[in-house]
Design goal:
The chain has three helices and no strands. By secondary structure, it is mainly α. The chain has one domain. Helix 1 runs parallel beside helix 3. The longest helix has 27 residues. It is elongated.
């Protein structure tokens, strides 16, 4: 039997830790994508930057990070099989 402690007006300790970890992973993903593109000398338009920064799906950010290593243009991050926000 597990015990979950609830505090008035707050989530559980586990929930808080999960959400903090997810936010940190998201921030690192965004920073990583933009850094890789910058190091590779690939220009990032305001629209592309906004799309990356506003994305909340950590799995999608991971996919874009992988793609950022090989794309020739920043817009190619979003290509392939219905990858829309």
């Amino acid at each position: 039997m597990s015990f979950v402690s609830y505090f008035p007006g707050r989530g559980t300790v586990r929930e808080t830790a999960y959400l903090e970890g997810k936010a940190q992973g998201r921030a690192e993903g965004v920073k990583g994508i933009l850094s890789v593109l910058e190091v590779r000398g690939i220009p990032v338009s305001d629209g592309v930057r906004e799309r990356i920064v506003s994305c909340t799906d950590v799995e999608r950010l991971d996919m874009w990070l992988e793609r950022s290593r090989t794309v020739a243009h920043a817009e190619e991050l979003f290509a392939e099989g219905g990858d829309s926000d």
